[in-house]
Design goal:
Length: 218
């Protein structure tokens, strides 16, 4: 009799152990599935967000590709924006102004002629289905009247407009430390094409300001 009771008790204990193991395995499987599902959702969301950003950029008639802003020390007052304007339409588009979220006082489109930097007349005409380079020692966007530091590693949102009033954006443009170029401000130290009584001291030479680049610093 005692042997039968003992055998029965052992059988019940074994059944309970098996059931407990089964519950543990089920819980582990559920936890694993939940983690996998959560990871998959996060990954999908990141991909969708990245894709949407890319599609938004491509949807614009004009985009600023591979943009960069030269880092600037506090008090320098000016720096440049470089990159390539790409026209995704079959019509020429004339870019006539730009701005940023820095809140600078002056934004101008500049050219460099005979090594002298000056405001360009007529804007930048980006050819149909073509591109227009904003380069060191050549045409570029110019940020002026901004005395706070623009540090390498920061990002800046850039907005530019065409002659028809259409607006385009280039968000999160990286700020990098770039090498200075060889341009200057002319013999009188003033930016050519500017009113010397505009109320802004433009008497910086290119060696101090280092506004342009020969090549990005890696």
């Amino acid at each position: 009799m005692n042997r039968r009771l003992a055998a029965g008790a052992a059988l019940i204990a074994a059944s309970l152990t098996i059931a407990a193991c089964g519950d543990s395995a089920d819980n582990t499987a559920e936890d694993t599935t939940a983690v996998e599902t959560s990871t998959a959702v996060e990954t999908t969301t990141e991909v969708e967000t990245s894709t949407e950003d890319a599609e938004d950029a491509e949807a614009q008639d004009v985009t600023l590709e591979d943009p960069v802003i030269r880092a600037m020390e506090a008090g320098k007052g000016m720096t440049g924006v470089f990159g390539t304007l790409v026209n995704h339409t079959d019509q020429d588009i004339n870019i006539v102004e730009f701005s940023t979220d820095l809140g600078a006082e002056i934004y101008e489109l500049h050219e460099v002629a005979d090594g002298v930097m000056r405001e360009i007349e007529g804007g930048f005409v980006v050819p149909a289905n073509g591109s227009y380079d904003l380069e060191p020692g050549a045409d570029h966007f110019m940020i002026m009247g901004y005395d706070e530091a623009i540090e390498a590693g920061d990002t800046v949102n850039v907005t530019f407009k065409d002659s028809e009033g259409n607006e385009y954006t280039a968000n999160d443009v990286p700020v990098r430390t770039l090498l200075p170029g060889e341009e200057n401000y002319g013999a009188d130290g003033e930016l050519q094409g500017h009113d010397p009584h505009a109320g802004h001291d433009m008497g910086h030479d290119m060696g101090d300001m280092g506004e342009h680049i020969d090549a990005p610093a890696h």
